[in-house]
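SUBJECT: protein chain
CONTENTS: sequence, structure tokens:
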Amino acid sequence: MNTRLLPLALALACSLAQAQAPQLEPIVEGLKTPWAVAFLPGGQLLITERDGQMRTAQPGGKPSAPITGLPAIDVGGQGGLLDVQADSDFARNRTIYFCFSEPSADKKSNSTALARAHLSDDLKRLTDVKVIFSQKPKVDSHNHFGCRIVEMPDGKLMLSLGERFSQKESAQTLDNHLGKIVRVGKDGSVPADNPFVNTPGALPEIWSYGHRNSQGLTLDAKGQLWQHEHGPQGGDELNLIKPKLNYGWPVITYGENYGGGKIGDGIAAKAGMEQPIVKWVPSIAPSGLVRLKSAKYGPAWQNSFFIGSLKFGYLERVKLDADNRPVEQEKLFPDAGRMRDVREGPDGLLYLVLESSGRVVRVKPATP
């Protein structure tokens, strides 16, 4: 090659490499501590802010004024207005579900609650708001609310619940909702086939137990439920959730106490307790979880899990083989910032909620 053309060739090669990489495209800006995003017909986004506001926005537009009609929310620490989901039949019934930190009557304690409401046609207010599930007991704490919602293929709702940090031993007992995943009907009723319905002393909403603080819950293409949870200074987990199983916290963990030192007996495995499919040591502080069904990004990304990192501010991709063993893990968009939610939109693209910059961004596929 003519040496005079070499700089031009190198510049062109770099330009092509950049063009081929997926890019983050800002969709909504100007949010305050955004926590979750849901998708409405017509392209509208429904967004929660942890400080107690719910807004809508068109991609590329400004956030709306706060939607009115929300119940009392105990905002503080990790608590506030958290996850939101649109009903699978939203176009007909205008129903949404959201979870939040619910104050007690005397405002001295709180717990995670799940509410159902109708969103007005003009997207300005909630009506017929009803709390359909309230975690028991309420605790004087502003930590570990969990609070992710999934609508299952059978129409039942799954909700992840933290163990409130100070009550970790309660994750191992069935007389409370702390450190559990629960399953309820859309009216809050208890399904007759829940695994502990006929267990004396157990709360009937419980689906699985032994969890710490889960801020990731999603379905795969087979309709199976997956979850991730925060570990303590190490030991974040990705789990395949099945009914009645014990996921071990705080008896087994790959983490340790903050500042060092073992938790309990310092063991990572015990008979009758589930092992994680993937674990992270040190912690990435995971929040937001989706298993991508779309082929928009090519075969390498399809069927991968995408997980936001609060601690390091990147998007992690995890791919499993047919036996649920991790075969690929990579860190994407390392400078994105503190990442709170990860969703697959109706367009088959990934949407990320960036808490630190107050934005929702979309991942643009690589260009040829």
In short: The first strand starts at residue 23 and ends at 28.
